Amino acid sequence: MSDSKKSFIKKYGTLLLLAAGAGIIFQLPYIRETFYPQIQEAMGLTNAQMGLLSSGYATMATLSYFIGGIVADKFSARKLLTFSFIITGILGLWFSTFPSYNVARLIFVLMGISTIITYWSACIKATRMLGTSEEQGRLFGLQEGLRGVLNALLVFGMTAVYSHFAVKSEILGTSAAIKLCSVVVIIIGILNFIFIEDTKKEEKSESILEVTKGMFKALTIPRVWILVAIIFTAYSVYGLIGYVNTYAVKYFGLSAALGSTLGAIRYLVQGLGGVIGGFLADKLKSRIKVIVGGCFFLALCFAMLIFLPVEASLLGAVIGNFMFGLLFIYAVRSQYFAVHDDAGIPVSMSGRVSGIASCLGYAPDLFMYTLVGSWMDSYGAAGFKMTWVYAVVAALLCIVFSFILSRIIKKDTAKTTL
């Protein structure tokens, strides 16, 4: 086999493993996206309590993103990734027993450590290092697409297991599905230990103090804050679109089993949206244009949900709108870390900048789910419509911040050409 073929296989084999990990490890802390009504019933929780589970995870994850940025630029990936997956899988097995609410909150807090500190920033940095500046949109788009396909396969498997055991008991079916996911996460951890190479010693030469100083220095760069704002608003839209599934189950007559199947189909759409977003970004030579276009159409999708009457006969319209929204949000999501290259962030700072952008950009997890959950508990269908208004505002703000970043980049380009 020629060296070029070996290089190609290694490059895209690594991308495949990174994509599998990046997608599947988050199935457990975000299990509500697929089995929200079933978990809620099994544990007897309100929407607000479901939101607090997510907020507990997010609170720890926020700190972990920041620490993870330091870890990614300092320590070997292989051992950290293995630890992260295996511990997360064990926590998933624990949660599958549906313990008390307080124990469940502890499990989600611990997942905020295990899924972030040793994985996330390292994954982004590793993806950036796989290709040139011209390939960034494509690589992140392919990663998003592969995550979608692999997630879909897993969720279809989880749904099949759920359906098989739900004949006896829905609680038993939900527990079996979570156990399947947990075992797959542990297996991926073992594969990481086997196939991911340890970082070379010279790549770990900076002391923890130097890396930490570099992290705080990155906070003084104005464009880093614009990147944070783009991720914050786009991620808000991404988090809220998952409630469309629950909305269809509660108010439009969609069955719980079909709702979970729809949760699996969303990951196939993720595959399509991620790949389209990536290749379109490289074709247009602008990741920012993809984000702006995607957010514009997302605002339209959520606006439609606001004005659509709550009638079971309109279930098809809700599902169709959901699918279009997913296509656009995954195109956007595939690019909001790739845009770091547009912003001129060097790869040497990628881990720490990704840590900052993730720590602050994913901050909606701290309050958003509890907030909208309380709206849904208090106002019913009207609470969902309030959630859709929130999503429209977030999508429009993302467009504004993207234009601001574009102007900063153009000014810097003009200065360098003088």
UniProtKB/TrEMBL annotation:
<feature type="transmembrane region" description="Helical">
    <location>
        <begin position="12"/>
        <end position="30"/>
    </location>
</feature>
<dbReference type="InterPro" id="IPR050189">
    <property type="entry name" value="MFS_Efflux_Transporters"/>
</dbReference>
<keyword id="KW-1003">Cell membrane</keyword>
<keyword id="KW-0812">Transmembrane</keyword>
<protein>
    <submittedName>
        <fullName>MFS transporter</fullName>
    </submittedName>
</protein>
<feature type="transmembrane region" description="Helical">
    <location>
        <begin position="388"/>
        <end position="409"/>
    </location>
</feature>
<dbReference type="InterPro" id="IPR020846">
    <property type="entry name" value="MFS_dom"/>
</dbReference>
<feature type="transmembrane region" description="Helical">
    <location>
        <begin position="50"/>
        <end position="68"/>
    </location>
</feature>
<keyword id="KW-0472">Membrane</keyword>
<feature type="domain" description="Major facilitator superfamily (MFS) profile">
    <location>
        <begin position="7"/>
        <end position="410"/>
    </location>
</feature>
<feature type="transmembrane region" description="Helical">
    <location>
        <begin position="314"/>
        <end position="332"/>
    </location>
</feature>
<feature type="transmembrane region" description="Helical">
    <location>
        <begin position="224"/>
        <end position="245"/>
    </location>
</feature>
<feature type="transmembrane region" description="Helical">
    <location>
        <begin position="103"/>
        <end position="124"/>
    </location>
</feature>
<dbReference type="InterPro" id="IPR011701">
    <property type="entry name" value="MFS"/>
</dbReference>
<feature type="transmembrane region" description="Helical">
    <location>
        <begin position="171"/>
        <end position="195"/>
    </location>
</feature>
<feature type="transmembrane region" description="Helical">
    <location>
        <begin position="353"/>
        <end position="376"/>
    </location>
</feature>
<keyword id="KW-1133">Transmembrane helix</keyword>
<feature type="transmembrane region" description="Helical">
    <location>
        <begin position="290"/>
        <end position="308"/>
    </location>
</feature>
<dbReference type="Pfam" id="PF07690">
    <property type="entry name" value="MFS_1"/>
</dbReference>
<feature type="transmembrane region" description="Helical">
    <location>
        <begin position="145"/>
        <end position="165"/>
    </location>
</feature>
<keyword id="KW-0813">Transport</keyword>
<dbReference type="InterPro" id="IPR036259">
    <property type="entry name" value="MFS_trans_sf"/>
</dbReference>
<feature type="transmembrane region" description="Helical">
    <location>
        <begin position="80"/>
        <end position="97"/>
    </location>
</feature>
